[in-house]
Design a protein that fits this description.
Layout (H helix, E strand, L loop, with lengths): L15 H6 L2 H9 L25 H20 L5 E3 L4 E3 L6 H12 L3 H14 L7 E3 H19 L2 H14 L13 E3 L4 E3 L7 E2 H4 L3 H11 L3 H15 L10 E2 L19 H13 L5 H18 E3 L6 E3 L1 E3 L4 E3 L1 E3 L5 H10 L5 H18 L9 E4 L10 E2 L12 H13 L3 H16 L1 E2 L2 E2 L19 H14 L12 E3 L5 E3 L4
Antiparallel strand pairs: 1-2, 3-4, 4-5, 6-7, 8-9, 10-11, 12-13, 13-14, 15-16, 17-18
Helix pairs in contact: 3-17, 4-5, 4-6, 4-17, 6-7, 6-9, 9-10, 11-12, 13-14, 13-15, 14-15, 15-16, 15-17
Length: 508
């Protein structure tokens, strides 16, 4: 069945019922029937994915051009620094670890940008050092820098990336020196001392539970079990803590190992990737740790019961939050939450309940609307949903302080999973429209900038910052979304960390 070309605004999105119907046979016969294909033991010996480089599609060529444009601006005005400020042609340092360069390494390799990759590798070899007398965030440094180095090592087998990863891992492991074994938020890379964050006494739940893929992978490569032992302890400790139908508060105290009372429950900021890594840890370890699978399934049931809601007038699915000690439902959803359709679909591929795919399809549609109903085709950071008739005929609205777009990848990430698993080209078309929004309203002379107002095509309020995850995640997922041969990065062989860095799946 051919899909209509969606060009005019009034035809940008297919009705949800039609979306679910399209290529249903492909979903049933290909997604569910092949879920065991290639999922056997003996995967510990990983080889780089075949077929790279390969002939690019026209849309991929556009993504590569965007990557080159972003890289050129970064190289010219922010080389070796964390972030480019493309409008003022300066740089921003947060962790002082060359975040953009490290985040971009595997993207450059995947896109076969040999010259750019070579100069980045040279910087890593000669300029990347971790003997910095400053605190860094354990989570951000792990998913971006450690994850980026490990991924690039797996893709290239070049020792320099592993050597740097080991040096960094040996410093970051100090974060686990707490009263409970649950890590502190910050680590000083020079003194190797850990501390609570400056903004409060507790660690974020998503942060202490979204470092497991990376530390486990480091143990598997080096044969040193200490990294994996530390993160296994955290996961097992969290497993034993009381939860609300599988859902967790967003703050935990590193000294006591207990939840902060009256914490919010959300699938967005500070909660999101806890749920993502339950599934991905289970996959990474060859589906051998049953408690991770069980906790994931319980959490999805809790999401359906406590967080799922429908809009007026269009009956769109969204997942809200529980505030005030997890008692009061709030009808808001972060763009960060839009990782969830992809995670649910990935779970179905690995045998999770089939109705999770329906949730994935419906939430994917809602997330896409939060982008394509804006005049810029870009999503706000936070969307509020109408659950009662308002007389406006609008399903959702955006508050002034939430109208910014930070070049985030989450919806595009989920579009890739949905397309990868179904072959439904509608997901590609939606992603292409999002990319057109990025090109039109975020591209500037020396790179790309986040913007402060997605609701106006005239007054977008550029914020003069190009986040590292734009190169590490957003452009990578767009490139993969438009890849003709989706087997190149098979989800039966690779699991992507929370920063889109692919790591191998092991047999146990």
């Amino acid at each position: 069945m051919s899909l209509p070309t969606m060009r005019s605004p009034q035809h940008r999105l297919l009705p949800l019922t039609l979306l679910i119907m399209l290529e249903k046979e492909a979903v049933e016969n290909e997604v569910f029937a092949k879920k065991d294909e290639g999922m056997r033991e003996g995967r510990d010996q990983i080889v780089p994915p075949p077929g790279l480089p390969q002939k690019r599609t026209t849309r991929q060529e556009a993504i590569v051009a965007a990557m080159k444009h972003a890289w050129k601006g970064y190289k010219t005005y922010a080389w070796g620094h964390d972030h480019l400020k493309p409008i003022s042609r300066t740089r921003n340092d947060w962790l002082r670890l060359g975040l953009t360069l490290i985040d971009a390494l595997d993207t450059l390799w995947i896109m076969d940008l040999k010259e750019e990759f070579s100069e980045a590798r040279e910087w890593v070899s000669t300029q990347l050092h971790f003997n910095l007398n400053q605190d860094v965030n354990l989570f951000e440094t792990t998913i971006r820098v450690l994850g980026g180095l490990l991924s690039t090592y797996h893709l290239t087998k070049e020792q320099v990336f592993l050597d740097k990863a080991v040096d960094l891992g040996d410093r970051l492991i100090a974060g686990f020196n707490s009263g409970s074994g649950v890590p502190f938020a910050d680590v000083n890379l020079y003194s190797r001392r850990a501390s609570k964050p400056k903004w409060g006494p507790d660690s974020s739940t998503s942060e202490v539970t979204t470092i497991q893929l990376e530390f486990r992978d480091l143990s598997r490569i080096t044969g040193n079990p200490i990294y994996e032992e530390k993160v296994n302890f955290v996961s097992e400790h969290i497993h034993k803590l009381p939860k609300t139908e599988g859902l967790v508060p967003i703050f935990i105290n590193a000294q006591t190992g207990q939840w902060r009372s009256h914490s919010t429950i959300t699938l967005g900021a500070r909660g999101d990737s806890y749920y993502e890594y339950l599934l991905k840890q289970w996959i990474q370890t060859g589906r051998t740790k049953d408690y991770l699978r069980d906790d994931f399934n319980e959490s999805v049931s809790g999401m359906e019961h406590l967080l799922a809601a429908r809009t007026e007038p269009s009956n769109l699915l969204f997942f809200g939050e529980l505030h005030g000690g997890s008692k009061n439902f709030v009808n808001k959803m972060d763009e960060l939450t839009c990782y969830l359709p992809g995670t649910l679909a990935l779970g179905v591929h690995y045998g999770m309940p089939k109705h999770h795919m329906t949730l994935a399809e419906q939430l994917m549609y809602t997330c896409t609307l939060t982008w394509l109903r804006q005049p810029t085709n870009l999503a706000p950071e936070i969307t509020y949903f109408n659950t009662q008739p308002t007389g406006t005929n609008e399903d959702f609205f955006v508050k002034n302080n939430d109208a910014h777009y930070l070049l985030r990848p989450e919806t595009i990430e989920s579009l890739w999973y949905m397309y990868h698993l179904t072959g439904n080209k509608t997901y590609q078309d939606w992603g292409w429209q999002m990319f057109q929004g990025i090109e039109t309203y975020c591209r500037v002379e020396n790179g790309y900038t986040s913007i402060g107002n997605v609701r106006s095509t005239v007054d977008t309020k550029p914020k003069d910052k190009m986040e590292s995850f734009f190169l590490g995640e957003t452009l990578k997922y767009l490139y993969l979304l438009f890849m003709e041969d989706q087997s190149t990065f098979s989800i039966d062989k690779w699991v992507f960390n929370s920063e889109a860095h692919p790591l191998p799946i092991y047999s146990h």
